[in-house]
Every structure is written in structure tokens, then in C-alpha cells.
């Protein structure tokens, strides 16, 4: 892709790169970046693009991948801005020759040591609609690194706002307890919100060796579908969904059953979309 397609880029420095999952499972890193550009500012829910220099396959000069910002507001000194992203080291299998290849952006970031400079673009507008009314309900559904924007939302709701009167529910699935990003024994900064009266997190683990995190999330939704469906039917409820694209099938299955039919569920979802109360971010 060309520089024009990329848009303006700024330089970011890796301040910290910490693995937040054990060696026995997929590598996920919490990476802190710093930008010393006075004009660079962001808001909760926004994302940045990481530009990986080439050459790449098909002769592309650059490769760009977007990542959600995992904190709600900038930190650091006045002359610079610091923020964090959540990166899972990815690999893919070539369907033709069966060879295993590393994901370009994820491996580039996971290999980056503190002090390394990288080019980023953005920030980009958030795909999520978070209500300004503190009495509104918020239902967050996600798997994997899709939890990153929800972490930022919780920080905003309970730290910046000071209090949130509506119900806030997080549904999250993972393969193992250590894959509960930001909610495991080593990294538990989301657990501080468990004391909030209006907040509840429903997490499910894959109970079988070949079970996926998306299937675990489906179980979590099924166990609490009555509460989730009751909230969705309220006119002041906003739904935010993030994670692997296959998550959509599991979610449609659970809520289709709760609604009585797939048609009724799709009609409800479309109504929320039309009213600006449904937002989603899927990645392959």
C-alpha cells in the first residue's frame, strides 16, 4: 500500500513489552508505546495502525494492521503520550502447501524490544458507541484480544465518570484461566471493578482440550442468556462486540434461541443498529 493510503504516520517508541500469558499457551503481550508528538491525542475505544516496513508479499512496500488502544486516556509526561495495545503472536497455515507462516504485524510487535521505534498511523475513530447517559446499560461481548477496548471502557466508566448507574455486563470466553487477559493470577486489573455494584463479568473456560475460546464464550452466554436477553430488550441498552469473526455465529445461535427464532433476533439486532445502540469490531 502507498504512503497516501496509509495516511500521516508518527514515530512511537516501545516503552514496555510484557507477556501476560504463560509459556504453555498462546503468547499475548501487553505493549506500552510512547509518542513524542504534541498533536497526537486519542479517546477511549480508538485504535492505531502499526506500519511494518517491507518489502512484503506481492511487492507491497508496507503492511499495516490496526490494534485497539487498551487504556481510556493518555498517560505520561506532558511532552509525550503513552498508551498500551494487546497483541497475540499469530501464525497461519497456507491452504495450498500446508506451510506455517508468522503473522506479519503480530510477530513484528511481539519481537520489538523496549527502545525500538515503529511507525503508527491514526488514531482512528472508535467503532463502538458508548452511552453518555450514566443510567444506560452496557453489554460487552468478546474473546481474545477483543477485550482491549472493553478494558478502556471500564476505566472510563468507573474512574473518569466516578459512578455508573446502569448495568454493565462483560461476557468473555478463553481457553484457560491464564488466557483470561487482565483477569488472571498474573494480570488482574479488571478485578478491581468486581466491587462495583453495577458491574458483573461472566467468564467461561474451554472445558475440553480441542474447545475454542469462542465456544467457551457461547457457553457463558447460554448460562446467562436470560439476563443478557432481558437487558438487550431494554431501550437504554448498548451492545459492544469484539473479537474473532466466528464469534458472530455463536452469538446469533444463542440469541436466536432466546428470541424464539433467528428472524426475531435479527430484527432486534437491526433495530439496535438503526438506533445506534449496537456496535462491533471483528477480525479474522
UniProtKB/TrEMBL annotation:
Cofactor(s) needed: FAD
Looking at the keywords, is Hydrolase present? no
Stretches assigned to the FAD-binding FR-type domain: 7-130
What organism, scientifically named, is this protein from? Answer: Sedimenticola selenatireducens
Which of UniProt's keywords are assigned here? FAD, Flavoprotein, NADP, Oxidoreductase
InterPro entries assigned to the protein according to its UniProt record, in alphabetical order: FAD-bd_FR_type, Flavoprot_Pyr_Nucl_cyt_Rdtase, FNR, FNR_nucleotide-bd, OxRdtase_FAD/NAD-bd, Riboflavin_synthase-like_b-brl
Q: What is this protein called?
A: Oxidoreductase
* GO MF annotation list: oxidoreductase activity
The reply on keyword Flavoprotein is: yes
Amino acid at each position: 500500500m502507498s504512503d497516501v493510503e496509509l495516511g500521516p504516520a508518527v514515530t512511537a517508541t516501545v516503552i514496555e513489552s510484557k507477556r501476560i500469558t504463560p509459556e504453555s499457551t498462546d503468547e499475548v503481550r501487553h505493549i506500552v508505546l510512547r509518542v513524542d508528538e504534541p498533536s497526537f491525542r486519542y479517546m477511549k475505544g480508538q485504535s492505531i495502525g502499526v506500519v511494518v516496513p517491507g518489502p512484503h508479499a506481492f511487492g507491497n512496500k508496507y503492511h499495516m494492521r490496526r490494534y485497539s488502544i487498551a487504556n481510556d486516556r493518555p498517560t505520561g509526561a506532558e511532552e509525550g503520550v503513552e498508551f498500551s495495545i494487546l497483541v497475540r503472536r499469530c501464525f497461519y497455515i497456507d491452504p495450498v502447501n500446508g506451510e506455517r507462516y508468522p503473522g506479519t504485524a503480530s510477530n513484528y510487535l511481539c519481537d520489538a524490544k523496549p527502545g525500538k521505534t515503529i511507525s503508527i498511523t491514526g488514531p482512528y475513530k472508535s467503532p463502538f458507541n458508548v452511552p453518555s447517559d450514566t443510567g444506560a446499560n452496557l453489554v460487552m461481548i468478546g474473546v481474545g484480544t477483543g477485550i482491549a477496548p472493553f478494558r478502556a471502557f471500564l476505566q472510563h466508566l468507573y474512574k473518569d465518570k466516578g459512578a455508573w448507574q446502569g448495568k454493565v455486563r462483560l461476557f468473555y470466553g478463553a481457553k484457560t484461566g491464564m488466557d483470561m487477559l487482565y483477569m488472571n493470577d498474573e494480570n488482574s486489573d479488571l478485578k478491581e471493578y468486581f466491587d462495583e455494584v453495577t458491574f458483573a463479568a461472566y467468564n467461561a473456560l474451554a472445558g475440553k482440550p480441542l474447545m475454542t475460546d469462542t465456544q467457551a464464550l457461547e457457553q457463558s452466554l447460554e448460562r446467562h442468556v436470560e439476563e443478557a436477553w432481558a437487558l438487550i430488550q431494554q431501550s437504554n441498552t448498548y451492545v459492544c462486540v469484539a473479537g474473532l469473526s466466528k464469534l458472530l455465529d455463536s452469538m446469533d445461535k444463542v440469541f436466536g434461541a432466546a428470541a424464539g427464532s433467528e428472524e426475531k433476533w435479527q430484527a432486534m439486532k437491526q433495530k439496535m443498529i438503526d438506533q445506534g445502540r449496537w456496535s462491533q469490531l471483528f477480525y479474522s
